[in-house]
Design goal:
By secondary structure, the protein is mainly beta. The chain has a single domain, classed as TonB-dependent receptor, beta-barrel domain (Maltoporin, Chain A, Beta Barrel). The chain has 4 helices and 45 strands. The strands form 9 sheets. The chain has a 22-stranded antiparallel barrel. The protein has a 5-stranded mixed β-sheet with strand order 3-10-11-8-9. A 4-stranded mixed β-sheet has the order 16-15-21-20, with no helix packed on it. A hairpin with a 4-residue loop joins β26 and β27 (431-450).
Length: 752
């Protein structure tokens, strides 16, 4: 991709000779250290400008660097344990992809023609591809999880919410930390960061990490351990302060990971797999075309990015010129059917290249009684995916017939400019009225080139065949997404609000189709979300209690459907098959009764259902009720012919825990614990009995020792301490992907 931005070009030139990291945070004291035991103020940018968390009329969960340590948040997936009405699991086949559902809105598909309903941002830069959104943290200042549609101020329209990661900027003082840990399944992790100010106007930061784990699944066929990880990365950040009115932050990073997520079976207390794929053999050599024929059991991702944020204080509005470029390469071979033969059961192989460029100009300021945010945003994506599916018929006795179901190259692009603005009018000292909106125009194009594979079991198809089937190769949409809100503050400790927000998720294509006729298009998913709630700080600022009620109304819900036909073949279809409604309540509380002790508790309640199914689903329901078993338990039609319970919408979620600093002479001992519970839910779309997961608990705990005045610390922790096994995802017709078992870890760190 040719990058024409002057800002980004200068940024690349500045950091060309450096590498950079992207994960890990220092272990700050987890509990409040003030003698009164009062709550610290949390600053968030949920409305794209700095505000106190308690002043924001948005449903947002905020985590400081100290929270990440105390609550054992190491990766983005860990956030789902602690956010009301949020569910998160690792995606099937590839451990680099996370599936997030917030208030019932999520997506389990990682192919590039699908856009996620929960967006991920790092330092205001949108990460467009869900196939590599699972990353560890380092040098994090805070993380904000916004619930509900983000249709006004954030870079891409999303219907479910956004995960906003803000990294620490280079410091004006020399310092840093180093940390090493060892844990279960022979897992090693090291990470470090150093701030090196070159002058009072040139500040730098360098960070890095590496981790390795053998894996928690025993492979009975190959003798290997599966579902482990080998990753490393580096990040360099530069802050230039040429004058009192200009701040220029530039960063670059590179991360290489290898993380496969295979199905397994629970045998006693062990998780076992039987796939014949292994890390030493190119199992599909001679079966598929191109470079991917040489892949072994792997999921290698190589992610490089460069970002620039030039901030100029004009004396009036503050101008931010925000530029980002991200290049992702992903090569994987995985097995979704856990087949014991050398070619696996249902093997998917993928060689992908994904580029994105974003440019934003944002203005923030104050004019009399009005605060405002306005700007323009542009994103361009260019993706190329060379992928194939191989299904092996097991004849027994170690003999099988591999069938190449597909072998093709998918190319797709997206261009989406947008303009946005929001004003907050402080009509009185108590009353604030908010109005804003975003206008987006989006163009998407797709093409398919069949690989010349003589072993192809099906019929090859390409762009011309899709066009001949009457399926458009281009989608365009222009849409205005407004937001209005009102907030009323009765005192400095108590604020009430109500809001209405519109958002949408882009349409796309069913690119996994095995024929041109099934390469079906689906349109955008549009949502209105209505919220009301309160923000409060009570008992002399020792108790923070926030409450939000919501009603989500989705039109054209993108229903993910997985059909197994009479031949046993899997057909993947997503369509705007129904509308969707979800409503509920979310409560978050933090209590600091005394210095050193910090407690928290969160609760989420929701009720979700499909509404207004289209004619094809109504006909399927009628067929099921008439006795046609093939129509039952498929798509979103339950085995009894009713509409199924929407997937990953537990009626009840909660998390709670705390930490306490115990001073023993000249040292500080800090025990911490947290627990989360998710009520019964289904991880499939059709509500079949095998897809339901009962109410499940996860418990974590840690113990840290550090001096009151000193650089070192040592600690031990466990996650899923009671080794609770449950299914995180199912793949039809019933292959299970379990959560990570109990993990323990010993850590030593040094700060300087």
């Amino acid at each position: 991709m040719k990058i024409t931005s002057i800002a980004l070009g200068a940024a690349v030139g500045t950091v060309l000779c450096t590498t950079t990291p992207v994960f890990a945070q220092t272990a700050e004291p987890p509990a409040d250290d003030s003698p009164q035991g009062t709550l610290n103020d949390i600053i968030v940018t949920a409305q794209r400008r700095e505000q106190s968390l308690q002043d924001v009329p948005v449903a947002v969960s905020a985590f400081t660097a100290a929270d990440l340590t105390a609550k054992q948040i190491d990766t983005t997936l860990d956030l789902a344990r602690l956010v009301p009405n949020m569910v998160g699991t690792s995606n099937v086949g590839i451990g680099s992809a996370n599936t997030y559902f917030i208030r019932g809105l999520g997506n389990t598909e990682s192919i590039a023609t699908f856009d996620p309903p929960v967006g991920t941002y790092v330092d205001d830069i949108y990460i467009s591809r869900q196939n590599a959104n699972n990353f560890s943290f380092f040098d994090v200042e805070r993380i904000e999880v916004l619930r509900g549609p983000q249709g006004t101020l954030f870079g891409r329209n999303t219907t479910g919410g956004a995960i906003n990661v803000i990294l620490k900027k280079p410091s004006s003082e020399l310092g840093g930390y180093a940390e090493a840990s060892y844990g279960r399944f022979d897992s090693w992790r090291g990470r470090a960061s150093v701030d090196l100010p070159l002058s009072d106007k040139v500040l730098t930061k360098f960070s890095g990490f590496a981790l390795r784990s053998d894996g928690y699944v025993k492979n009975l066929t190959t003798g290997e351990r599966n579902n482990g990880e080998k990753s490393y990365g580096a990040r360099a950040a530069l802050r230039l302060l040429p004058s009192e009115t200009i701040t220029w932050d530039v960063a670059a990073d590179y991360i290489r990971g290898n993380q496969v997520n295979l199905p397994s079976v629970l045998v006693g207390d062990d998780l076992v797999s039987r796939t014949g794929l292994n890390r030493n053999t190119a199992a599909l050599a001679g079966l598929v075309i191109g470079r991917k024929a040489g892949f072994k059991l792997q999921n290698i991702t190589k992610n490089a990015s460069v970002t620039s944020n030039l901030q100029i204080d004009t004396g009036g509005p503050t101008i931010n010129i925000i530029t980002g470029y991200r290049n992702l390469k992903q090569d994987y071979l995985s097995d979704l059917f856990d087949g014991p033969l050398t070619t696996g059961g249902f093997a998917i192989v993928n060689a992908g290249r994904f580029e994105q460029f974003t440019q934003e100009v944002k203005l923030t300021g104050k004019a009399g009684t009005i605060d405002y945010v306005a700007g323009a945003f542009y994103i361009h994506e260019k993706n190329r995916t060379d992928f194939a599916d191989v299904f092996t018929i097991n004849l027994g006795g170690g003999v099988g017939i591999p069938l190449v179901l597909s072998d093709r190259v998918l190319g797709n692009t997206t261009s989406a400019p947008a303009v946005y603005a929001q004003i907050d009018w402080h009509a009185t000292d108590e009353l604030t009225l908010t109005a804003g909106g975003r206008y987006t125009h989006e163009d998407k194009h797709v093409r398919v080139i069949p690989n010349p594979n003589p072993l192809l079991f099906g019929v090859p198809y390409g762009t011309a065949d899709i066009r001949a089937a009457g399926i458009p190769l281009k989608q365009s949409i222009s849409l205005f997404t407004p937001r209005v809100a009102v907030e009323y503050r009765t005192s400095s400790e108590f604020m009430m609000f109500a809001s209405a927000t519109r958002g949408f998720r882009s349409g796309g294509w069913n690119a996994r189709a095995l024929s041109a006729e099934n390469f079906l298009v689906f349109g955008p998913e549009k949502v209105w979300s209505y919220e009301t709630g309160l923000r409060s700080e009570l008992l002399d600022r020792t108790l923070r209690f926030n409450l939000t009620g919501f009603y989500t109304d989705v039109n054209g819900f993108q229903v993910p459907l997985g059909f197994v036909d009479s031949t046993g073949a899997i057909n993947f279809v997503t369509q705007n098959g129904s509308d969707f409604r979800d409503y509920g309540v979310e409560a978050e509380a933090q209590f600091v009764p005394t210095a050193g002790l910090s407690l928290f508790a969160n609760v989420g309640l929701q009720r979700a259902k499909y509404r207004n199914p289209d004619s094809t689903i109504v006909a399927q329901q009628a067929s099921c009720r008439a006795g046609n078993a093939a129509s039952c338990g498929q798509g979103i039609v339950a085995p009894d012919g009713s509409l199924a319970i929407p997937e990953r919408t537990p009626k009840f979620t909660t998390s709670f825990g705390g930490s306490y600093d115990i001073r023993l002479g000249g040292v500080r001992l800090t025990p911490a614990a947290n627990a989360s519970y998710t009520s019964r839910q289904t991880v499939g779309t059709a509500g079949v009995p095998g897809d339901f997961v009962g109410g499940e608990w996860l418990v974590g705990a840690s113990l840290t020792l550090r001096p009151d005045e000193g650089p070192w610390r040592i600690g031990v922790d466990c996650s899923n301490c009671f080794d609770n096994h449950f299914v995180g995802s199912n793949f039809p017709p019933g292959f299970k992907f379990y959560n990570e078992p109990m993990m323990w870890r010993i850590t030593a760190g040094l700060e300087f």
